[in-house]
Amino acid sequence: MELTADRAAAENADGLVVPGVGAFAACMAGLRAVDGPRTIGRRLAGGRPVLGICVGMQVLFEHGKEHGVETPGCGEWPGVVERLQAPVVPHIGWNTVDVPDGSALFAGVERERFYFVHSYAVRSWRLQTDGHTRAPLVTWSEHGGDRFVSTVENGSLCATQFHPEKSGDAGAALLRNWVTAL
């Protein structure tokens, strides 16, 4: 594993992890500074794996709305990242996920709990497929009665709203599933 801001190294890696902590706009500014959206797009165009984690997942969507500011994202999926509408925000702690059939990421950990820490998420999914391409697998979670997208598996592009690296054995197994698929 290598931490890099070098575009060539990121484009040529076996797998690229897009981490994220903090605010959507700040994460996008950091990605833009190293031509990250283009690098992600080039990898995906070539079928090269990308995994987004937390805000690294959020920036893969069209837009983020935080603190009254709307920021364009990478636009890999349609959708808007917005504040959770739960009685208690941020959502911090262990939570279940509603795993769809056929998930490769969750193989062996379908019924486990994962660690979340976030105030914003994608609360609606509206991607249409043309019938010829496989629809992304979308995993949902709920916090305080508010449903949100917690994982997307879409060919070579996968992402989790939760932190697998903080999710103990279940998170390690999920990351192992992703790495094994490289």
Order of helices and strands: HEHHEHEEEEEEEEEH
Q: Biggest sheet, open or closed, and with what strands and sense? A: 5 strands, mixed
Helix proportion: 10-25%
CATH fold assignment: Rossmann fold
How many separate domains make up the residues? 1
Computed Rg: 15 Å
Look at the structure and give the CATH class: Alpha Beta
What this model shows, in words?
- The chain is α/β, with parallel strands linked by helices and 182 residues long.
- It has a single domain (15-180), classed as Class I glutamine amidotransferase (GATase) domain (Rossmann fold), CATH 3.40.50.880.
- It is 24% helix and 32% strand.
- 35% of the residues are buried.
Task: Give a topology summary.
Layout: H1 7-12, E1 16-18, H2 24-33, H3 36-45, E2 50-53, H4 55-58, E3 61-66, E4 69-72, E5 77-83, E6 91-96, E7 113-118, E8 120-122, E9 137-143, E10 146-154, E11 157-160, H5 168-180
Parallel strand pairs: 1-2, 2-11, 3-5
Antiparallel strand pairs: 3-4, 5-8, 6-7, 9-10, 10-11
Give a quick summary of the entry:
24% of the residues lie in helices and 32% in strands. By secondary structure, it is α/β, with parallel strands linked by helices. It has a single domain, classed as Class I glutamine amidotransferase (GATase) domain (Rossmann fold).
Keywords:
182 residues; four-stranded mixed beta sheet; alpha/beta; 32% strand; five-stranded mixed beta sheet; single chain
